[in-house]
Amino acid sequence: MIKNFFYNYFVSRKISFKLMFLTILFSAFITLFITMLQLYMDYRNGIKEINNQFSLVESGYKASIEQSVWVFDKEQALLQLDSILNLPDIEYAKIKLLDSNYLERGKETNSTFVTKQMILTYLHNAKEITLGELVVVADLSRLYQQLIDKTIVILFSQAIKTFLTSFFILFLFQILVTRHLEQIARFTKKLKVDTKPEHLSLNKLSSDSTRDELDNLTEAINVMQDEIYKSFLNVSSELKARKIAEQSLLEYKKAFDESAYVSKSDISGKITYVNDALCQISGYTREELIGKSHSIFRSKRTPTSLFDNMWETIKNKKSWKGNLEDIKKDGTSFYVYSTIIPILDSNGETIEYIASRYDITELVEKERL
Predict the structure, then answer these.
(1) Domain end position, chosen among 193, 228, 250
(2) How many Cβ atoms sit within 10 Å of the Cβ of residue 41?
(3) How large is the average pLDDT for residues 273-279?
(4) 237 lies in a domain?
(5) Domain containing residue 315: CATH number
(6) What is d(CA 32, CA 114) in angstroms, rounded to the nearest whole number?
(7) Do 11 and 88 belong together in one domain?
(8) What total of structural domains would you count in the chain?
(9) Cα–Cα–Cα angle for 204, 208, 210, nearest 5°?
């Protein structure tokens, strides 16, 4: 049960797991730094205390030892050494005489130690006489053991504190943040642009009812939903209107194609489109006309000045209207009332021409009778 709880709340939630890992890592770094600083201060205090013991030996015992050595009072000198050993951390004391003899108390340590050497002198007849040397050794083992014990206590206590604090922080993060993010993720996965949106509402506890960043995110998502749905309705309406317009245009084009001979050409006059009616009346197939010049329909009886006027008009981006005699493929004539319209782009430049022709052959022939 505990394993499932830990997995569900932390391992399976990547953000929570990363937050826990980074929290522990940062806390461990801070703990290590503070511990090292505290141990360094304790070490300095311990060394300072040992130096105080050395100073006490020099100020309180050195003069008595010098007197004992001067009068060759061995027992008194040894008593002084025993008294020195009673001081904290002092493990060994030795009097080295000039004749290589020595007096010692305690046991020399093979572990870590600090040694203090003091020259023994005696003032006789206003002359300072060197008697030998006092060597005092302080063992650092107790200080080091104290530092090790303190390190273990600090690290163990901080480890427990860090774990419990991290666990509590992540539990709060899960309650206040992660579960809401998962709710938002589930909600956004179900969003549909073609359905009237249901606004997102977080299942917040009474204790976290104050508006926060998650509420701002929720509001932004709801606003986004509304805007997307409005855009969808607008696009749908526009597409529907465009579909109706396209259908109307198709009907107009159909009616136009059935009532007129229609062709299109590029700006050089090359045919790019013809409708069936023009093919039928002219006798040409569509393949025979596409790419050809409109002069294929030109009658030799039509004055050149008329075509010059037509090109001048349409090149000036104006529509031209007039009666023309056109020639079919078989050489016979048919008469049309033509309208040529320049088609302009968004910059006002001509991109093509559209020509519509209405058959007036019957009317022309009646007028000739």
Answers:
(1) 193
(2) 10
(3) 91
(4) no
(5) 3.30.450.20
(6) 28
(7) yes
(8) 2
(9) 110
Residue 101 tokens read as 């003899």
> Are 274 and 155 found together in one domain?
no
Average pLDDT, the chain: 85
Question: Which parts of the chain are beta strand (E)?
Answer: 90-97, 102-106, 113-124, 127-139, 261-265, 271-274, 320-327, 333-344, 350-359
**How many angstroms separate the CA atoms of 188 and 192, rounded?**
9
Are residues 142 and 36 both part of a single domain?
Answer: yes
Can you tell me the distance from the alpha carbon of 31 to that of 125, in angstroms, rounded to the nearest whole number? 63
Q: What is the pLDDT of residue 2?
A: 52
Of 69-73, 171-175, 331-335, give the lowest mean pLDDT range.
171-175
Cβ atoms 43, 143 nearer than 8 A: yes
Q: Is the pLDDT of residue 279 over 70?
A: yes
Residues 40 and 159 in one domain: yes
Count how many residues are written for the chain. 369
Instruction: Please state the three-class secondary structure of 43-109 as a single string.
Output: HHHHHHHHHHHHHHHHHHCHHHHHHHHHCCCHHHHHHHHHHHHCCCCEEEEEEEECCCCEEEEECCC
Instruction: Provide the domain limits for residue 83.
Output: 1-193
Q: What is the pTM of this model?
A: 0.47
